[in-house]
Specification:
By secondary structure, the chain is an alpha/beta fold. It has two domains: about 160 residues, 3-Layer(bba) Sandwich (FAD/NAD(P)-binding domain); about 260 residues, Polyamine Oxidase, Chain A, domain 2 (Alpha-Beta Complex), CATH 3.90.660. The chain is about 35% helix and about 20% strand. A seven-stranded mixed beta sheet has the order 7-6-15-16-17-14-18, with helices on both faces. A five-stranded parallel beta sheet has the order 9-2-1-13-19, with helices on one face. It has a three-stranded antiparallel beta sheet with strand order 10-11-12, with no helix packed on it. The chain is globular and about 65 Å long. The model has no long low-confidence stretch (mean pLDDT about 95). It binds flavin-adenine dinucleotide. Flavin-adenine dinucleotide binds next to α1, β14 and α15. The site of flavin-adenine dinucleotide (FAD) has 36 residues, from α1, β14 and α15. Belongs to the carotenoid/retinoid oxidoreductase family. CrtN subfamily. This is Phytoene desaturase.
């Protein structure tokens, strides 16, 4: 007797959709992906122009062990597909007053930098890292790596005790201040919570895990940029018989008696046993169905990115850099208060510092990423004036950092991305860059579940589900969902 393979339809070929497809193909399912854009990858994408290669959004491979785990569990070795190297420095951090800190991955150099701030702060930094490490191990085992769909497995005495140990109610800034006195060192640590689109003054100390895991596991660079991961995943899906339809917008879900049976495209219906939405949860619930009243969620902020192709090498920069402006709190809070920053603090990425192939000879590529309000902010219009304002802030800061007065004259390629682009291209709901906000009411059991609570046959994967935003967490989401589906057999 020939057993029919169960058919999985995936809406969207972001990291979440691709990783789920690979895992389910490997487990013997038939997989068909529909992606609205002409290329796969979703927000993890690429722009190429005049010999410059830009990663579209994600640039930091945080918790790289998740990248390795995906390949390992597929019976492969990541290193056989992608050349990976580790930068010697995590970040060069530049401050408005001209101060500069180098956060090396070499313990001796790192210690030298910290001691130059003060011995007390060096002690505080290592104590903080030790505390974070313990919390990370606990959080990773108890929550991040476990599915939180079931109330019965989440609300156990053991779990509640573990949550208590994580002290989730204090905010990042207050927590860091217990260990560190130097305001600049605090700002460097706090800035990194912005990676998940949260303010360090409001978000739970759980997110100090971000600077911690960077220090413990490093920030490896994938040769060719982050999109290399997407290319390999796409190639494997095709080799393993998965089908990817690009330029294929899913217009709605096909639903009967609150049960999702398939998807509606412009010219046909496709039906499957499992319908998985990699498109963001609030977008799906608002735009692809009209049976269930969508919940209102707290949203993360958005991002403005300036991409620069420069005709000069900039040896004073690292692959990962942070620029901290004055009035740090006021300016980074603005993204959450519906305002543009007056003087931005930002992260900037120069991959050509360690991957020369990403720029023409003697050139450099830079992505500058500023956190800005999402599209719910009524008083920010993404017009030429707004873009000019942000560009001027960036050029001024880069001229200061590089000590090149006429920095703008080096620019050969200039492109940008706004929250409107995130919404238009990837259906990011209200232009959010980092999924649903990670406040405590929307984490773990309280984040949307992988299996829809409202519609049978519908599943979610990606940054609006547990455990949250970022490539590594989305890979975890794909792992948890795939396990759940495989259990159904
Ligand atoms: C500016 C910025 C910087 C970031 N930096 C980092 C970083 O340094 N490191 C890191 O780890 N993470 C980073 N992230 C986060 C990371 O990019 C995301 O968490 C991750 O890419 C989300 O993947 P996903 O699969 O959940 O969603 P997406 O990538 O959004 O994938 C969803 C896919 O669904 C498609 N889709 C939507 N609607 C439909 C439809 N109706 N029909 C068909 N297809 C549809 C979309 O086109 C898209 O391809 C960053 C994000 C942003 C925006």
């Amino acid at each position: 007797m020939i057993l029919m393979k169960e058919k999985v339809i995936i809406i969207g070929a972001g990291i979440g959709g691709l990783a789920t497809a690979l895992r389910l193909l490997n487990a013997g399912y038939e997989v068909v992906i529909y992606e609205k854009e002409d290329k796969v990858g979703g927000r993890v994408n690429r722009i190429q122009e005049k010999g410059y290669t830009f990663d579209l959004t994600a640039t930091i491979s945080m918790m790289p062990q998740e990248f390795y785990l995906l390949f390992e569990e597929l019976g492969l070795r990541l290193e056989d597909y992608i050349e990976i190297s580790y930068p010697k420095s995590l970040y060069y951090t530049f401050f408005k007053d001209g101060t500069y800190y180098d956060f090396s991955t070499d313990l001796i150099k790192l210690n030298r930098q910290l001691e130059s701030i003060s011995t007390k702060d060096a002690v505080g930094y290592f104590q903080l890292m030790s505390d974070i490490y313990e919390k990370y191990q606990l959080a990773n085992q108890a929550f991040l790596s476990q599915s939180c769909d079931q109330a019965s497995s989440f609300f156990t005495f053991k779990h509640l005790k573990e949550i208590f140990k994580l002290e989730p109610l204090s905010n990042v800034y207050d927590y860091v201040s217990k260990f560190i006195k130097d305001e600049k060192l605090k700002e460097y640590i706090c800035f990194q919570t912005m990676y998940i689109g949260m303010s360090p003054y409001d978000c739970s100390i759980i997110y100090t895990l971000l600077p911690g895991v960077s220090q413990f596991y490093g920030l490896p660079h994938l040769k060719g940029g982050m999109y290399r991961l997407v290319e390999v995943m796409e190639q494997l899906i095709k080799e393993w018989g998965g089908i990817i339809h690009t330029n294929s917008l899913v217009e709605s879900l096909v639903i009967e008696d609150k049960c999702v049976l398939g998807i509606q495209l412009s010219d046909r219906i496709d039906k499957g046993d499992y319908i998985i939405a990699n498109a963001q949860v609030p977008y799906v619930m608002h735009e692809l169905q009209s049976i269930i009243r969508p919940k209102e969620y707290h949203l993360s902020c958005s991002a403005f990115i300036l991409y620069l192709g420069l005709k000069q090498r900039l040896p004073m920069l690292n692959i990962h850099n942070i620029y901290i402006n004055q009035a740090f709190k006021e300016n980074i809070q603005s993204a959450f208060d519906g305002k543009l920053p007056k003087e931005s603090s930002f992260y900037f990425y120069v991959p050509s510092r360690m991957d020369e192939g990403m720029a023409p000879t003697n050139g450099e590529v830079i992505n500058v990423i500023i956190r800005v309000p999402n599209l719910k902010a009524q008083n920010v219009e993404w017009n030429e004036q707004t873009i000019l304002l942000l560009k001027e802030q960036i050029y001024k800061a880069l001229a200061q950092v590089t000590k090149i007065e006429h920095f703008k004259e080096l620019v050969e390629v200039e492109k940008y991305l706004t929250p409107v682009d995130l919404a238009t291209h990837f259906n990011c709901y209200e232009g959010i860059a980092f999924g649903l906000s990670h406040d405590l009411t929307q984490t773990n059991y309280f984040r949307p579940h992988h299996q829809s609570d409202d519609l049978k046959g519908l599943y979610f994967v990606g940054d609006c589900t547990h455990p949250g935003t970022g490539i590594s967490l989305v890979l975890k989401s794909a792992r948890q969902l795939s396990k759940q589906i495989c259990k159904h057999i």
